[in-house]
Write a structure and sequence with these properties.
The chain is an alpha/beta fold. It is 48% helix and 15% strand. The longest helix is centred in the middle third of the chain and has 29 residues. This is Short-chain dehydrogenase/reductase.
Length: 272
């Protein structure tokens, strides 16, 4: 297609990342999809190995794409990790795992590609947030915290690089049918029956998993990301997902905090 872009998509082996890579490739863009391991299978794009938690891996991946294609026009920071568990049960090392992937991983890749984008006076970075980055979700507190942090990082970065012709945006999906249900990482303490949170945590996370399995297809998020990469959708923040979840997030800034938290606790069967 005219205006074909070189797009690097992280976490492209499944879910939103794969759907995004497929849609971009189908529209004629030159896509490099990444996975922490070797190529997960045949695809109409190039595969690259990338561990976003490793600085050397990020540098090698970006250097490889530049050597092959000469430029990077857009990055989709999709690689992510969902952690479940009570905050009290979560160790600092477990918390760091969530932030290393969801926050510092996106930051590492942005830092690696920005010199080239500034030099070419154009570029797009799309960070994959979550509705859990707008509302603190019980027993996914570290996941919410990392996505809250990514929201702030994205908003600040967008302002810093605008003068260089670089666009930065965040996409916040609601429940989406992806393998995240089976790949959720747990704080070990909350799986211990001796934890005072074990029963409530298991029940609430089961509610999340039920909603996720019934979630919207990943292609809806992929369509939005593609529109941002192609410049057809503008703005620093984009929310996509079921209407009820989007209303919940919107009400967060309108409904008094005490009432909002009461409603959340009632929904999840928490509190007194």
């Amino acid at each position: 297609m005219a205006g074909s872009k070189v797009v690097l998509v992280t976490g492209a082996s499944s879910g939103i990342g794969r759907a995004t890579a497929e849609r971009l490739a189908a529209r004629g863009h030159r896509v490099v999809g990444t996975s922490r391991r070797d190529s997960p299978g045949e695809a109409p794009w190039t595969w690259a190995v990338l561990d976003v938690t490793d600085e050397a891996s990020v540098a090698a991946c970006v250097a490889g794409v530049l050597a092959s294609h000469g430029r990077i026009d857009a990055v989709v920071n999709n690689a992510g990790l969902v952690m479940a568990g009570a905050v009290e049960d979560t160790t600092p090392d477990e918390a760091r795992l969530s932030f290393e992937t969801n926050v510092f991983g996106a930051m590492r890749l942005a830092r690696a590609v920005l010199p080239g984008m500034r030099a070419q006076k154009a570029g797009t970075i799309v960070n994959m947030g979550s509705l859990a980055g707008r509302v603190g979700m019980p027993f996914q507190g570290l996941y919410s915290a990392s996505k809250f942090a990514l929201e702030g990082l994205t908003e600040a970065l967008a302002q810093e690089v605008a003068a260089f012709g670089v666009t930065v945006a965040l996409v916040a999906p609601g429940d989406t049918a992806t393998p995240v249900v089976d790949n959720r990482v747990w704080a070990a303490g909350s799986r211990d029956p001796a934890s005072p949170y074990a029963a409530a945590c298991a029940r609430v996370v089961a509610m999340y998993e039920k909603d996720e399995r019934a979630g919207a297809p990943a292609d809806g998020v992929a369509a939005l990301v593609t529109a941002i990469v192609e410049g057809r959708r503008r703005g620093p923040r984009h929310v996509v997902g079921p209407l009820g979840q989007r209303v919940m997030v919107a009400s967060r800034g309108v409904v008094p905090g005490g009432i909002f938290h009461w409603g959340m606790s009632r929904y999840f069967g928490l509190g007194r």
